[in-house]
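Thread: quick sanity check before group meeting

JM: Hey all, I'm pulling together slides for Thursday and realized we never actually wrote out the predicted structure for the chain we discussed last week. Dropping the sequence here so it's in one place. If anyone has concerns about the input, flag it before I start.
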Amino acid sequence: MSEPAAGPRLTDRQRLSWLRLIRTQNVGPASFRDLINRFGSAEVALEMLPELMISGGANRMVRIPSLAEAEAEMEAARRISARFVGIGEADYPPLLRSMDNPPPLLAVKGNAAVFRLPGIAIVGARNASLAGIKMARMLAADLAGDGYGIISGLARGIDTAAHQGSLLTGTVGVLAGGLDLPYPPENAGLCDNITERGAIISEMPFGWQPRAQDFPRRNRLVAGAALGLVVVEAAQRSGSLISARLAGEMGRLVFAVPGSPLDPRAAGTNGLLKDGATLVTEASDISRAILPLTGMRTPDPPPFEDPPDFSATAPPGESDRAKVIEALGPTPVPVDEIIRHTGLHPAQVFMVLLELDLAGRLERHAGGNVSLVFGDG
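JM (edit): ok, ran it. Output follows.
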């Protein structure tokens, strides 16, 4: 496994500003991107946040993490030999860049060269059967032997088996909490083993205990970092089916291992097969479908592509804000429709949406759709 090529790097000062910005409440990947596009740097964006939140109608100001807090998190990363990698840097997983709203900053521990392998995600039930665990481990080992990087979410059951099957060649574990708090705790040793040849990653702060709502975010990264996603066992309502749906929305290939109709752990995978997922009984079923995609290299883009030209027109006024808010409701709508309906310049609409987002009044959905949050701002 060769080391990744060198690329542009954030300075220490930029990295601290990026960390402070992404750790600010109401600043997600989309608003982070828009802030950088609008103000040119995270440092200037941090200074402008209070004004933007007021313009968006925030009922209360959110606290911006201090420089000392960002430095403390950097130090926490150094203590466990981890680091923060920005989206424009060489060590950032290439396929994640093609997601909608990729995380601008990832905590990474281990060998980032594993990100250069064509990735295949393997996920499934936590309460997996022995047959399911054996299948996941076998698929992971065979695919890893063919030069693929195996990606999973470090959960019990199928995820753990997938990582174990690909330890010798390099696997990527995606955590729902901080890198310093592996979950479940019994997989702490597995995390250490993974980082010898592969890597563990997280977009969450150090010291963060994962909550229920953090696991779909983790699943999104698992799906986004791979060319295809394999579900080995999954109940009818499960996180693995969320991962499969996310993978399909991102244009990734979706595979499923069939199971007995009498086993509820196979209901989800059998449902995926009915819906058009590729049937898997051996690793070659996956590698044959993935192989044509492995030569397609995503170009290394600048950190943020296709920014709206905020300098092309005057900042939005109160009447402009009113038009955008009136066009919004609880039902998600495409941003292009808001632009057409209001007749405003795209940069003005993007600015109003950014203000609303920072004020906690906007919800972003798949495909670039947005809706208004009603209630307390």
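AS: nice. The radius of gyration is 21 Å. The CA atoms of residues 118 and 291 lie 9 Å apart.
JM: adding both to the slides.
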